Amino acid sequence: MQDSECLFCKIINCEIPSEKVYEDATTYAFKDINPKAKVHVLVVPRDHYANVGELAKGNPTLLAHMVEVAQLIANREYDGAYRLIFNTGQEAGQTVFHVHGHVLTGEPLDE
C-alpha cells in the first residue's frame, strides 16, 4: 500500500534519490537532507501510513520493527545512544505525511 503522490513513497521506490542507510522488506532508512544532529536518519515503513498513531493502530509490529532499526543505526553510528522523534500533525512539525521516525545521534544531544 503506497501513495503515488507521497515524497517518501517516491524515495522508497527510487523515483527520487536518497542516501540509503538501511533497508529490508518492510523498512527503509535514509539520511535527512536537512540534518539536526551529526547523524540524522529517517526510518520509514515501505507501506504508507500517515502518522505514528495510524501505524500503531494498523501494524504495531511494524512500529516495533522501526524502533529496532533505529537502535541498529544508533549502534553503528554512536555507541547505541540516540533520540527517536515522531512528529504527528502539521502543528507538531510533520511536513511529509508518511510516518517516519527521526533518529538523531552521533554526538551528545541537548534536552
UniProtKB/TrEMBL annotation:
GO molecular function annotations of the record: catalytic activity
Motif Histidine triad motif boundaries: 98-102
PROSITE patterns: HIT_2 (PS51084)
Domain of life: Bacteria
Signal peptide annotation: none
Domain HIT as annotated: residue spans: 7-111
Pfam family name, one: DcpS_C
InterPro entries associated with the record: Histidine_triad_HIT, HIT-like, HIT-like_sf
Active site per the UniProt annotation: H100 (tele-amp-histidine intermediate)
Protein known as: Histidine triad nucleotide-binding protein
Source organism (scientific name): Bifidobacterium pseudolongum subsp. pseudolongum
